[in-house]
Each structure stands twice: as C-alpha cells, then as structure tokens.
Amino acid sequence: MNISLNFIIGVLAIVYGLYCFVQRKIAPRNIEKLQSMIERNGEKMGHSIHLFGYTILPIVAGLLLLYAHFRA
Length: 72
Fold this sequence. Notes:
With 72 residues, the chain is an all-alpha fold. It is built from three helices and no strands. The longest helix is centred in the last third of the chain and has 29 residues, at 43-71. It starts with a helix and ends with a helix.
C-alpha cells in the first residue's frame, strides 16, 4: 500500500482536532489560546471561535485529505 502525504496529514489533522476537543472538555482553563479568545470576544463567542478553528476545521480538513488519498 502506497501511503501518500495526504493520508499522513489527514490522520494528523483528525487526531489534532480530537485532541483539542478532549482538552476543551477536560481542562479548558489550561488552554491559553482559548482564554485569550474569551477575553477578546466574550465567553460564548470565544468558545465558538476556538471550537470551529481548533476542532471542527482540522477534522473536516483531515477527512477531505483522507478522501483525496483514497480517491486517487
């Protein structure tokens, strides 16, 4: 089986997104970027921006990269 760069980056992006999601649930006070987003944008918007940028976006990008790998 030939493993492409799309496969490796896709898996890493999905793992990173899941890691950020677990960190948000376990210890959100320890995430400095989340805290700075909350200070700048407020509680609800800070959480929303961080959830999208550090959890949803990497998982979707990783799934698209895996799709590109298996499609080729």
